[in-house]
Amino acid sequence: MGDMNDMERTSVTALHRETASERTRSLTKMALCVALMAISSYLAFPLPFTPTMVVGTTIIVNMTAFVLKPGDAALVVIAWLMIGAIGVPVLPGGTAGLGRLAGPTGGFYVAFVVSAWLMSKMLNGSNSFRKMVFLGIAAGMPVIYIGGCISMYLVAHMNVWATLVAAVFPFIFGDVVKVVAGAFLATRINAFLKK
């Protein structure tokens, strides 16, 4: 009887250690994703006909969704937004502040949270490159575009056509490329972490 209790305690302790190890690994991945989001925000350039910039952040939003669990992916983007909101220049183009989040492009940033959660949830732990690309194009991009269009429409007082021209049409090809890049990075990271 005593041996059975010792075995149960040992297996519970091992399980607890594994869970703590998994949590540590998850928090480390989350911290790295926040850092990569901040760094990628400096890969940005403006377009003359729209307040929306072409940003590298979208690659990392996709990658984050594809390497983290849904809640963790959303928390990474929320943490990045909070850091930018308090004044640290981590938002696209090295900008910061609540004004940036409440401006015409703020909807894109808020939609990053929903997009990261949704893509991660739909991916369901798969490491399929094709599934990642499909989800990025069919789920992630539309969510981000909807968020951006809503803020441009409401804040910049643009009509629907002008909003689509400024927030969607010029970015479709580049965003597809960024989804592919994010999926490529994610499959390599996931494969490496499973070794």
Model description:
With 195 residues, this protein is mainly alpha-helical. It has a single domain, classed as Arp2/3 complex 21 kDa subunit ARPC3, CATH 1.10.1760. It is built from eight helices and two strands, in the order αββααααααα. Helix 1 packs antiparallel against helix 2 and helix 2 packs parallel to helix 8. The two termini are 38 Å apart.
Offer a concise description of the structure.
The chain is mainly alpha-helical. It contains eight helices and two strands; from the N terminus they run H-E-E-H-H-H-H-H-H-H.
Side by side, the strands of the main sheet go 1-2
User: Oligomeric form of this entry?
Assistant: single chain
What class do helices, strands and sheet pairing give? mainly alpha
Give helix and strand order, one letter per element, not per position. HEEHHHHHHH
Architecture (CATH level 2) name: Orthogonal Bundle
Compute the number of strand runs. 2
Pick out the low-confidence regions.
Answer: none
Shape: globular
Tally of DSSP helical segments? 8
Strand count, sense and barrel status of the largest sheet are: 2 strands, antiparallel
Q: What percent of the residues sit in helical stretches (DSSP H or I)?
A: over 70%
Overall tally of domains: 1
Rg computed from alpha carbons, rounded to a whole number of angstroms? 19 Å
